[in-house]
């Protein structure tokens, strides 16, 4: 049975925005699985996502403290539709990222990460897929704020789509 996903990170609420963009909430409400790769900033968003998401796989980021660190791990893992997923906030510099992540996550098919606010989609020499959804609230040096959607089905990650968000 295919599993629809929404992937986000670096939401930084309420510092970068008052709320998530409507288009992201719509995608979250329709998804089977929501992944958040850290930097929530306010625990209120975690409470909302836990209430609205059918399933949540999430970690804390470097800007998350207090209750967020108490409730969320540094690394989260799940196997969904035969795909081994991991989520972490930081992976270090872009230079050498594939090598470092392949060594750190040898039993993972897809690694979701955040921190940079820069969308990223590469595959390591070991077959590990690295995905960063960017940020839906803080584009930094990017042309748009962004988030990802994808589908997990029969052992494969498919239909990975980067969605630009109007601000």
From TrEMBL:
Q: Which UniProt keywords apply?
A: Metal-binding
PANTHER family, per database record: VACUOLAR SORTING PROTEIN VPS29
Q: What class of enzyme is it?
A: hydrolase
**Which coenzyme or cofactor does it need?**
a divalent metal cation
Annotated Calcineurin-like phosphoesterase domain residues: 5-151
The record's similarity note reads:
Belongs to the metallophosphoesterase superfamily. YfcE family.
**Can you name this protein?**
Phosphoesterase
Q: What is its EC number?
A: 3.1.4.-
Gene Ontology MF: a single term: hydrolase activity
* Pfam families with a match to the protein in the record: Metallophos_2
InterPro entries under this entry? Answer: Calcineurin-like_PHP_lpxH (IPR024654), Metallo-depent_PP-like (IPR029052), Phosphodiesterase_MJ0936/Vps29 (IPR000979)
